[in-house]
Design goal:
about 5% strand, mainly alpha, Arc Repressor Mutant, subunit A, 9 helices, two-stranded antiparallel ribbon
Length: about 180
Amino acid sequence: MVCIRCKMVVKDELTKLGLHYATVELGEANIMEEISPGQQQQFKAALLKSGLELIDDKKSVLIQKIKNVILELVHYSEEPLSTNFSEYLSQTLQLDYTYLANLFSEVQGTTIEHFMIAHKIERVKELLVYDELNLTEIAYQMHYSSVAHLSAQFKKVTGLTPTHFKKIKVKRLSMLEDV
């Protein structure tokens, strides 16, 4: 679950099944009672109808927790980390970072770092398209050390500079207006 609507769907489906929850967070629901196999199947089917998936194997749950920490940091965190990311992730999930990194790479076929960079660049693209912040403000908001660092990483991932990406967006919009 990566959005408020997803959490609302999960809460609604749990309520429909008569289940009580303590919390529903990104990727995790803490249910206060035991779920019968029938209820679990109903819940799973209801989530699938909404485009969500119930994850119940331990490795997949842990991978999803790692992703959720990254998504939370990239999309919702205002403050930069006071420690490096590997320490933060290890402390948050109460597991050794090397174990987390190896498991993530094994299951996902990419490193935690590359996954995080990909999501940061997607967020930068969103911010560029919204056109409310300049590149310096975006670099600051996304916790890059400099505009040069952001630009280099953006170009490495997309093949374009942020400025060129923005120009392409403007061109596409003007072409749509001509139609």
